Amino acid sequence: MGQKDEPALGVPYYVGQNPYQAGAIPPNAVFGDPKGIPIQQTMYRDTPAPFNCPFCGSSGLTFVRSKPSLAAVVGCMMPFMLGFCFLCPSMDCLWHKYHYCPNCNEKVADFEKTDPCLGVDVPQWTQQSFALPA
């Protein structure tokens, strides 16, 4: 009862809005081949991401394979009323992305589009994936 409310240790306290929750990229982010830098967390998105492979131990950039998602099918159905469908690589921003190691070809992560009503976030569409050093 007599304890004061104190913030938890290790959790940064932000007055107002947390810039990283708003989409800001941390200043220590790694883009491209990490070249042996130990990585704490990798953000797997639409583009190849820097990573350390848990299977073979190599570091580098993932290669990405795509599969149509429910969002792509819904996007295809909208213009279908006009008589044509755009379920093709031009709608790649709506497809699921699966990241593989270029060395051992093992799947290391996936980035699935879960919202069928979500379109492309145009300002962030060409943003590279990044990793945070340990």
Lay out the secondary structure:
Layout: E1 39-43, E2 50-52, E3 59-61, E4 63-67, H1 70-80, E5 96-100, E6 107-111, E7 130-133
Antiparallel strand pairs: 1-7, 2-3, 4-5, 5-6
Walk me through the structure.
The chain is mainly β and 134 residues long. It has a domain at 35-111. It contains one helix and seven strands; from the N terminus they run E-E-E-E-H-E-E-E. It has one helix at residues 70-80, and strands at residues 39-43, 50-52, 59-61, 63-67, 96-100, 107-111, 130-133. The radius of gyration is 19 Å and the shape is flat. It is found in: Membrane. This is LITAF domain-containing protein. InterPro entries: LITAF, LITAF_fam.
Distance between the termini: 38 Å
Number of helices: 1
Helix-strand makeup class: mainly beta
Structural Rg: 19 Å
Largest sheet: 3 strands, antiparallel
Bin the strand percentage: 15-25%
Order of helices and strands: EEEEHEEE
Secondary structure: number of strands: 7
The coarse overall form would be: flat
Order of neighbouring strands in the sheet with most strands = 4-5-6
Which segments are poorly predicted (pLDDT under 50) over 5 or more consecutive residues?
none
Q: What share of residues is helical?
A: under 10%
**Roughly what is the average pLDDT, rounded to an integer?**
76
